[in-house]
Structure formats: structure tokens, C-alpha cells
TrEMBL record:
Name of the protein: L-asparaginase
Organism of provenance: Roseateles saccharophilus (Pseudomonas saccharophila)
Key word Protein biosynthesis present: no
Top-level taxonomy: Bacteria, Pseudomonadati, Pseudomonadota, Betaproteobacteria, Burkholderiales
Its EC number(s): 3.5.1.1
Domain Asparaginase/glutaminase C-terminal: 211-302
Length: 306
């Protein structure tokens, strides 16, 4: 049994005309509608549930909490071999990393999405959903991955790198797990493994989760945004630095002031790939995590301390 959990997104979006690939409304079709559009899946043993119905740019903590609980509930069923989650592309990498860190499942949890709405002349959602199910039934598959445009990505390193193309996601630093070719999964890397933090880590009401924001280094960055955020009562800050997590003098000074005042601070990079080195005298590094994933990591760390 493969369980399909729907959360909305472009894959469930519709537009007024088939030629409109950007002026659509996301999250209009149910997960059952999405399955009906893929006749090739009719022979599979599938079960569908609608967990949420939103545009993933509006993804929030409450939905993450509800989704993680729903995924764990299905994973606990002995008759369930894997799970597929339909999602929007905007925050797909964030949801995947969140589930990876909280659940780190031994069974496959495969997220998929689309860049074109379901009403497009050539929608990419049906193929992506078909591929995701093939990954979920793969006997050796495990962990949280993203199946998209014929490739399977590790949740830790995948990033959305293009605003429009149907192959909008890339794996960096060797994060590509497999390719799906004519319904067959060809392993080119390794299935992800990790240590689950568990649902208890996120049990607090979502409105009480720590507030962590992202600031970016850029020409003329003076730290004013950091001081404004600090004054508003934030709990943590991720600095998307230039290059190897470098920060302007003004931004670095403001971040150190916030850190001294009790705000947790880590450095990431605005570059598309590569780690931030941990060096003496510098603010703590987020390692190879992108700014949005470093933010999730910091939220989870702060939840453990609350």
C-alpha cells in the first residue's frame, strides 16, 4: 500500500485557459483528482488523504505539524510500504528537510510537485506523481526524498534553482539519489538516513514555536534590519552571508549585539552550493545547509530548549 497525502500546490492548480502557465490559482484540485489524471497508476494499491489545501508559499508551522503527524500515522501502519506527498514547489525543499529531521523514516517518504498547473497544455504533475509512486514502491527506498522531473533528490541538499523551468530543482554536493527512467528507478547515489528527532520535538502549539528570521549580506548591509528584528522579540537569526558566509562589518556587529542579547545566530551562505567553514572568531556556521534549512534547524534546536 502506498498512501498519497495532498497538500495543494501548483500540481493541484488550475487556470482559465490551457495556455496560461503562470496566471493560475494553486490548490484547487483534490488529491483524488490528481490520481484520476494518471491512469497508469490505476493498477497500484493506493490510498489518498487530503491533509491541507494551500499554495506552498503560504506554508506554515501548523500545517507542518499536522503533516508530520499524518505521515507518522501512516508510517506506523504495517500495510503501508511508502508515502507520497503532493506539494507546491515554493517551499518544497523546506518541508522535505523538516520531515527528514523530525521523522528520518525507514520507509520512503517521497515529495513531488509541479511547475505547471493541472490545466496546462502539457502539465508536468502527472508524470511527477507517477514517478513518485515508482520511487515509493522501490524495495530498497527509504528516507525523505523529492521526485521531480525524472530525478530523485536528497532532502538535505536539494534546492529550487529556477523560477519557471519544469526541471527547477537541483541537488548540490552529491545529493542526487536516483533517476526515474520509464518507470524504473536507477540508483546513482544513496538513500538518505538520519536520526529522527521525533514528534515530541514539535508537540508545542505552533503559535508558540520560536521565531527565527533570515537576513542577507549585500552591498551596503548596515545591520539596521537585525536591530529592528531584535527589538521585535525574535529568538534566532540566520545570516545568509556572501561567499563563505562573509558578513559586512555593520551586519556582523549587529548580529553580535543580538547574540550577546540572547538571540541565537548562525551563518549560512546565499550561494547556491557549498558549506560555510567554521573558523575561530566568527559567528557559528550552519555548515552546508541553505539559509531556509538552517532556519528550520535552528527552530528545532530552540524547540528542544524550550
Amino acid at each position: 500500500m502506498i498512501v498519497i497525502l495532498g497538500t495543494g500546490g501548483t500540481i493541484a492548480g488550475t487556470a482559465k485557459t490551457a495556455s496560461d502557465g503562470v496566471g493560475y490559482t494553486a490548490a484547487q484540485l483534490s488529491v483524488e483528482d490528481l490520481l484520476a489524471a494518471v491512469p497508469a497508476l490505476s493498477g497500484q494499491q493506493l490510498e489518498a488523504h487530503q491533509v491541507a489545501q494551500l499554495d506552498s508559499k503560504d506554508m506554515d508551522f501548523a500545517t507542518w505539524q499536522r503533516l508530520a503527524n499524518a505521515v507518522q500515522q501512516q508510517l506506523d501502519r504495517p500495510d503501508v510500504a511508502g508515502i507520497v506527498i503532493t506539494h507546491g514547489t515554493d517551499t518544497l525543499e523546506e518541508t522535505a528537510y523538516f520531515l527528514h529531521r523530525v521523522l528520518a523514516p525507514a520507509k520512503p517518504v517521497v515529495l513531488t510537485a509541479a511547475m505547471r498547473p493541472a490545466t496546462a497544455l502539457a502539465p508536468d504533475g502527472p508524470q511527477n506523481l507517477f514517478d513518485a509512486v515508482q520511487v515509493a514502491v522501490e524495495p530498497d527506498a527509504r528516507g525523505v526524498v523529492i521526485a521531480f522531473a525524472g530525478r530523485v533528490h536528497d532532502a538535505v541538499q536539494v534546492r529550487k534553482t529556477h523560477s519557471y523551468r519544469v526541471d527547477a530543482f537541483e541537488s548540490v554536493d552529491g545529493g542526487l539519489v536516483a533517476r526515474v527512467e520509464e518507470g524504473a528507478v536507477r540508483l546513482v547515489g544513496r538513500w538518505p538516513m538520519g536520526k529522527a528527532l521525533g514528534l515530541a520535538r514539535i508537540a508545542a502549539p505552533s503559535e508558540r514555536w520560536p521565531r527565527v528570521e533570515i537576513v542577507m549580506n549585500h552591498a551596503g548591509a548596515d545591520g539596521a534590519v537585525v536591530r529592528a528584528l531584535w527589538a521585535s522579540g525574535i529568538d534566532g537569526l540566520v545570516a545568509a552571508g556572501t561567499g563563505n558566509g562573509t558578513l559586512s562589518r555593520g551586519l556582523d556587529a549587529a548580529l553580535r549585539e543580538a547574540q550577546a542579547g540572547g538571540v541565537r545566530v548562525v551563518r549560512s551562505t546565499r550561494c547556491d552550493a557549498g558549506p560555510v567553514m567554521e573558523l575561530p572568531g566568527l559567528l557559528p556556521s550552519a555548515g552546508a545547509l541553505s539559509p531556509v534549512k538552517a532556519r528550520i534547524e535552528l527552530i528545532l534546536a530552540l524547540l528542544a530548549e524550550s
